[in-house]
Amino acid sequence: MQSRVFTVYLSLGSNIKSRVGNLNYGIEKLNKSTQINVTNISSIYETQPLYVENQDDFLNMVIEITTTLSPDNLLQFTKHIEQESGRKLNTHNLPRTLDIDILAYDNQIINTENLVIPHPKLNERKFVLEPWAQIAPNLKLPKLNISIVRLLEITEDCSRVMLYKEKN
After folding, report:
1. What pTM was computed for the model?
2. Predicted pLDDT of residue 90
3. DSSP characters for 13-27?
4. Are strands 110-111 and 116-117 parallel, antiparallel or unpaired?
5. Which regions in the chain score pLDDT beneath 70?
6. 147-154, long-range: CB within 8 Å, 24+ apart, which pairs?
7. What does the domain layout of the chain look like in residue ranges?
8. Closest Cα partner for 159 from 91, 22, 57?
9. CA end-to-end span of the chain, whole Å?
10. Domain 6-163 has CATH 3.30.70.560
11. Residues taking part in catalysis
């Protein structure tokens, strides 16, 4: 019997140590799983921090994967990758080596103690919407029934989000 394959969108962010290296580490670890296939990758964007502003800029991106993992197992796997990258526990909105959030899991709506999908703060996160609109502009999220590109157009988030160019 073949397992069902789900299309999932993840955001990756980093603002300490080797930011590009941390993002690449996360993608490599995801792609090494036999139950995950990275199918699309946005450009990297440099973004100013939200919520706790006295910290270095982030690099953010969004990737599309296909997976046979359940939402809970995927969450456990991404948290394990974060910890392997050197992320400390309880660094919510603080500097971190790697942050991986599950933005959307197929067209499912999930609301548990550990996981809310679609991600509840999408509409206020230009740093997620900009790269996501690059790889899936017309994707409509369940419950919201609005495309990613439209969410980007109407977000009230005015923070700086720009394509990242590596310094030589």
Report:
1. 0.93
2. 63
3. EE-SSSHHHHHHHHH
4. antiparallel
5. 1-2, 89-94, 167-168
6. 151/122, 151/123, 152/126, 154/123
7. 6-163
8. 57
9. 51
10. yes
11. 87, 96, 99, 101
